[in-house]
Each structure stands twice: as C-alpha cells, then as structure tokens.
Amino acid sequence: MKTIAILLHDGFEQTEALATMDILHRSHAFDITLLSDMDGLEVKSSSGLIVKADKLLRDSSTDDFDIMVIPGGKAGVEGLYASEPAMLLIKKAIEAGKHVHAICAAPSILGRIGYLKGKKATCFPGFELGEAIWQDESVVVDGITITGRSMGYSIDFAHAIVKLEAGEEADKRIYAGQLGLRAKE
Prior knowledge:
Elements: E1 2-8, H1 14-26, E2 30-36, E3 42-44, E4 50-52, E5 55-56, E6 67-70, H2 74-82, H3 84-95, E7 99-103, H4 107-112, E8 120-121, E9 133-134, E10 139-142, E11 145-148, H5 154-166, H6 168-178
Parallel strand pairs: 1-2, 1-6, 2-5, 6-7, 7-11, 8-9
Antiparallel strand pairs: 3-4, 10-11
Helix pairs in contact: 1-5, 5-6
C-alpha cells in the first residue's frame, strides 16, 4: 500500500485537504498521514476549522511516505514556505524522487524552488509558478507531478491522484460510488 503525507499549516484550505483525503481514502490504496507544521497536532484551516493531524511534520522524514500532497490556502502556503522544516521535507521529497502534488496556491512553492521549471502546471491565478509552462486547466498531470487550479477542482485533483497512483480502475470505482452507481464489471 502506498503512503501519502498531506502537509498542513494554519490557514490551509480545508476542502483542498479534506476532500482530497476523502477521495484518496475511498480508493483503499493508500495509507494517509496528515502532517502538522505547527507546534502541536491541531491545525486551523482558513475558515477556522480545527483539524487534528496524525503527526508533527518536524518528526517526519521522506522514509515515511511515497507521495506528498500540498493543499493551498494562501496563509497555509505562505506558512509552509516560511517553515524551514517544511521546505526541507519538500526539497528532500523531490530529491528522493517522491511524487509531489499541489493545488491552488501550493504549486507556487514548487515553482519558487525551481521544481516546476519546464513542466506543465496550473495554480490559482496570481500565484507564481516560476519557470513552469502555465496551463489554463483545472488539473494538470506532468510526469509524476499533479497540480490543481483551485478549491473548486479539489475532487478532480484527487481523482487525478488516484488515477496516477492507484490506476484507472480504482478511480472508476470511486467515481461510480460517489454518484451512487454500480461500477461496471
């Protein structure tokens, strides 16, 4: 089973984090860990929702996960970017060849550190992508990296992750279940 770390800092966008986590969970293909970049496990979303993470980010290493997901939320993204432990973990994940996926404002972190140079990507308008090849799309898959445009595309972003990481059949099964349909056998 693949392992996924979802990075959270105060001000994260709750739909981007939790809807993504829910879809990933429904695939039964991943062991998901919420990592708090705060002093404790409680992390406050941009709308004030308190989420209890599973582990402190500073106590994590790239050995703990195969895939990293970074939700947006302007304050959360700026908090992660200003956090030495978070940036170190992100950079080490990239160096280790981990799959790193980001949505909304979060792709700007990857752009600022040069990871998106020459890659197709999307993000919330107004956030910098560095030398990425901007795509006016809801979700962009470029190799092992997925970027999503905004909160409104959280479900599509999550489905793209399932499709890439667990396969098309797993994604079709989840999608059918979401709509109350029986998956075709």
